[in-house]
Amino acid sequence: MRLRVLGCYGGELLGHQSTAFLINGHLLIDAGSVNSLGGVDEISKIRHVVLSHIHLDHIKALPFIAELLAEGGRGVEVFGTEETIGFLKQHIFNGSVWPDLSRLPTPENPAVRYSTMREGGTVIVNGLLVKAIPVNHTVPTTGFLISDSLASMLYSGDTGTTDRIWSEANNAQNLRALMVEVSYPNRLKDRAVITKHLTPHLLTEELKKAGLKRETWIGVYHLKPPFVDEIRKEICGLRMDNLILLEDGDTFET
Ligand SMILES: [Zn+2]
Ligand SMILES: [Zn+2]
Description:
By secondary structure, the chain is α/β, with parallel strands linked by helices. It is 26% helix and 26% strand. The model has no long low-confidence stretch (mean pLDDT 96).
């Protein structure tokens, strides 16, 4: 699998892009930003978007991507849980915040096609298996286990302390990468707990449950832009060999 980090922050400010990861050029995991892509050609290759939850930093670019893809006559298939798809219909594509792109440009060939995923269920998207794993956030949210025949990657979505995704990490075959959120510095633990996010210290506690093998690297993302420097120092202070801070524009091959 080819992983391209289009945006890896929990907001869009100070030159940072909000969360979106592109797999094999066609599958977008969350849709916070596609500004890292070079042009229309690259955006046009996106076929499917898998949404972890409805928060703005994960969906902001979706209407614009869908409209561009509709011009090419294809539109985009959007996967999410029943709750997330329901929120999209109710709060975003509702004719007020944005036009109902599930009926435009035409009801027969719309810009957005919805596909519902069950929590714990797996869908096959262009040869990739994508399993939705519920995590612990302020709105219904899932992380994802993405696998091909050779390797798997685990994406935490936004989450506070949680359990199920770590047993998935334990059981996953050939888990090469874990992308995991950290949003606030250690001194803002209370805010992290209320908003159901992680700090560097909470991350170390969570990773004890994951039982990761040496070949699995850990990519930290979703830093809130106002605290980037502070969180970076705390993450570096953990001195974990297999842990990196992701950056917008990074690419990886599993
Ligand atoms: Zn977020
Ligand atoms: Zn969120």
